[in-house]
Amino acid sequence: MTHAIADSRVPALLDFLSVSPTPWHATATMAQRLEREGYRRLDETSNWQLVPGERAYVTRNDSSLIAFRLPDSHTALTSLRMIGAHTDSPCLRLKPSPAQASQGWLTLGVETYGGVLLSTWFDRDLGLAGRVQVRHQDGRRESLLLTVARPVACVPSLAIHLDRDVNSGRAINAQTQMSPVVMQLPESGDTPVEVFHALLIDLLEEQHGVRVADIIDFELGLHDVQLAAQSGLRGELITSARLDNLLSCFVGLEALLEADGEQGALFVATDHEEVGSASACGAQGPFLADVLKRINHYVGLDNEEGYQCLVQRSLMISCDNAHAVHPNFADKHDAGHGPKLNAGPVIKVNANQRYATNSVTASLFRELCREQNVPVQTFVSRADMGCGSTIGPITASEVGVPTLDIGLPQWGMHSIRETAGSHDVALLIKVLVAFCNREVLE
């Protein structure tokens, strides 16, 4: 008899994944969740008046978010339990002037964002989503989210009859072969630019119920409209776009919300990790340090020494998914360090500091897993293969906080549709809640 894994968090995770096609949508969704739980929104341009027991959050660029909770007593905050993730995922982003005509069809010029696994984008039903800057009829400017969740585009494959060697391996040219087809051009004589401009205005009216006067600028991308799902004969799997790294965003936020609040805890989800994190709202930027300094001011040690004491007494757990052993490509892993789906969180290690883990930070996480009766795995790349990186080393070097890198195992990283284990979600949340509740971090 088949049955799905009974975990109340899985449906909530699937909903979060499905309604978060871009970093702006993910941040807005997390902000709504925080406000439902009593967290108040702070504005970076205003003075913060924090109080004991404060639960608050702040966003930057509408695509990065930091949420934190303070203990009930001023004197109790001597350290912070920090969980980090990132909101962005590899995708196809529209160029600033994307509209182009080809054989009577409107196609869109795109550029790749991050390390996209391009082959997986062919023949998928694609929607359009992102952030649009508009001018209203009264001259007012506004930033609007656009969410087109129905199929409006596709990147059609070339028939095998016209490329007999395709299954032997063919390079994909993102400039000439990845343009999504949107619609058949009308015979009105309107240019592709005019057609696309009118199309955007129609889509915004469809979603927001208002007819804008003009589109000033936009940041838009394509996304797979297939909803996230729990799959496998017994519900062992989760399949979705953007598991890397919205899965970690969900887990980290849930852990913060489920913590008992006795200790200082913070969750940070930054944008632009997939392209190096070098931005004002990325992990290499000052966002986290800016918030920590404001929290330090609340503590009453409003000086550099007090700030350094707070940072060095704290700990950052950087959460970003790990490569699970693929059943068809087991040789791509080191034989002794091949994480498996549904076998618990993974400690990520790299001798060249592509991950920030060291024996001290790893041992604390192993002890947390042991205390919570949660299995723990270790990932190390093969010595003859390169290794990706995370926000962990960047945060450690920019802020100076002791850090380790962990994540949940997954298959198909950077594919348009990735796969993870449904058991693992509750396991990592359990450990991270224990981390947030831990009285002593040493």
From TrEMBL:
GO CC terms:
cytoplasm
An annotated GO BP: proteolysis
- Do the record's keywords include Metal-binding? yes
Q: Does the keyword DNA repair apply?
A: no
Report the GO molecular function annotations. Answer: aminopeptidase activity; metallopeptidase activity; zinc ion binding
What domain of life is recorded for the organism?
Bacteria
- Write the lineage as a comma-separated list: Bacteria, Pseudomonadati, Pseudomonadota, Gammaproteobacteria, Oceanospirillales
Per its UniProt record, the required cofactor names are: Zn(2+)
Q: Which PANTHER family does this chain map to?
A: ASPARTYL AMINOPEPTIDASE (PTHR28570)
Pfam families linked? Peptidase_M18
- From the Swiss-Prot or TrEMBL record, give the protein name: M18 family aminopeptidase
Q: NCBIfam families annotated for this entry?
A: PRK02813.1 (NF002759)
EC annotation? 3.4.11.-
Keywords, comma-separated and alphabetical:
Aminopeptidase, Hydrolase, Metal-binding, Metalloprotease, Protease, Zinc
**Family, per entry:** Belongs to the peptidase M18 family.
* Classification via InterPro entries: Peptidase_M18, Peptidase_M18_dom2
